[in-house]
Amino acid sequence: MQLAQEDRVTALSFRTDDVPMMATANSEGDVALWDLDNKRLMHVLQNAHDGVISSVDFMVGQPLLITSSADNSIKEWLFDGNDGIPRLLRSRTGHFAPPQMIRYHGDDGRHLLSAGRDQTLRFFSVFRDAQNTELSQGSLERESRVRHARMSALRFPAVTQFASNTAMSRDWDDVVSCHQGSRDAHSWSVERKSLGKYTLESSDSSIVRAVAISACGNFGFLGLASGVIEMANMQSGLSRRTFVGHTKAVTGVHTDACNLRVYSTSLDGTLRIWDFATGNQLHCINMPSTPSHLIVYCESSLLACACDDACIRVIDAESTRIVRTFSGHRNRITDLAFSNDGRWIVSSSLDCTIRTWDLPTGYMVDWFRVESVPVSVAFSPMGDFLATAHMDSVGIFLWANRTQFADITLRQINPHSDGSTDGSVAGAALVAMPTTAGLVDENEETVEDVEMDAVYMAPEQLTDNMVTLSSQPKSKWQTLMNLATIKKRNMPEKPAQVPELAPFFLPTTVSVEHQFDFGTSDAANIPTDPTSSKLISVSSESQLARILYNAHTTRVYAPVFEYLKTLNPSAIDVEIRSLPVDDQLKALKAFVCATTCQLKSKRDFELAQAYLHVFIAVFTDIIKANARELEPLLAELRNELKAQWDTVDNLIRYSACMIEFMRTK
Known about the structure:
The chain is an alpha+beta fold.
């Protein structure tokens, strides 16, 4: 017997449930079904897959056919009709070309949207693979059979950028995308998992380069190659407003959380801020280098731009100033993302590194290197995962955020080191890519092993010019300042009653009958010495006094506060009240000098205030009586205390004014 099929045959299988049938697959993605009794072709499943079919297998004794292909899909076909033609029962598919852009969809961090070079837009669930699906572009299979064309020729061009918002998902489309070389943008519905109702066309027939959706979900924005930005209504698909000002192609567009501002970047090297309601330009910021990517953290009005000079620049939208510049990448930045709390920026680059930048400190706090170039990153809204897509991989990789379940101390890392020229500076660790099992090779060095080599301890004081509070609990110094009130509140209302003299267990006599022995005990007959004292020993000096005397001699006052920090509030109060008052007032002078020295070091500011409060309350009369002798020391203490308090007071007033400004703004 000899049967012929178009193109090269790549796989075949025989049916084993008493039906004489053979299935063959070719390199064009077609599956042919053959009737072995009549030696004829029964049916051809055209475009069953989008690539070379590598395997076809009939389930043993069942009318089920399993096919797998190079298009990263596996499909199950069921023969349940009388005509012998199967229908698709279920399938598992993914990108068969590397994804170019990934973003989380929604605020729960459970779903991802991904656009790949395979001209598809896909929906992925982080927890359930059964929910993964491709957003439908129409009846492509039927059209491919009618037109005798491949499905890839009927799809839209590859998605270059997309934006999503779940605010109005139940009412109308919630995704908008632009495509390679296309003058149109398309809307999609994640709720229906299909193409949306409208095609948003550019007004000047220029290519759409960037898209965005407003925070309310009502408006979509198109950034055109001509530099114009168009706003369209997502419900009706009609154009509502244009923003004119850029002279070259728009590279990024975003809106704020309140629909007050629109932000955009362009190849003309500017970042522009527009009024949402009128379309007028409010500010124009000339960037040091051409911005290629733009992201926004709406809760703090911070913008981050990835520029062509491999630097990330953070702009405060309120002051329209560049507040941070992060440099260190050695090649073009491919993508960047804010963390869920806005503290970090995660960036990926063609240098195969993924770096984490800390906004408050302006330092790089983490980085690692991977074998495949990362092209897109997305931070989970819940902060638990970082999703990455890579240039030569069709999968989406999830990295767990270790700070969510472990105490991780972040340290400053030199972003310009690679470990190749300076042996003292460790470069980025090469980390194995995550797998479906979530495990790495045991022989490979993990990030945890690298971090354990050098344990970083946070300093008690960042700089010598910064007034620093102690690490002691807040309740400790507050209790010390209000100790008298606490003792008065805890005093018993009734005096303690004297217990009865009778013991709980009475002695018995040695006899047959059970009788108590009411005789006097031997202890009562022991003679006592009326001249002996019940006090074993009494020391005239306390531990704090001895430390103060030693500090007065050596002029080293640090041990005084170190000792006081080891005591509880009641013990501190007793130690201060027990200071001896001799003729020369050495202990009191040493305590004043120790407090002055502690204030000059700008450390433990609140503890110094609390200890000084108790000291003055106890020795007020003695200080007044010896004012002339203590005046030089007290004057120095007063000047230092005023200088330190003025610094703290200015910071408090500045912060209060900023909070009030942000609240009223």
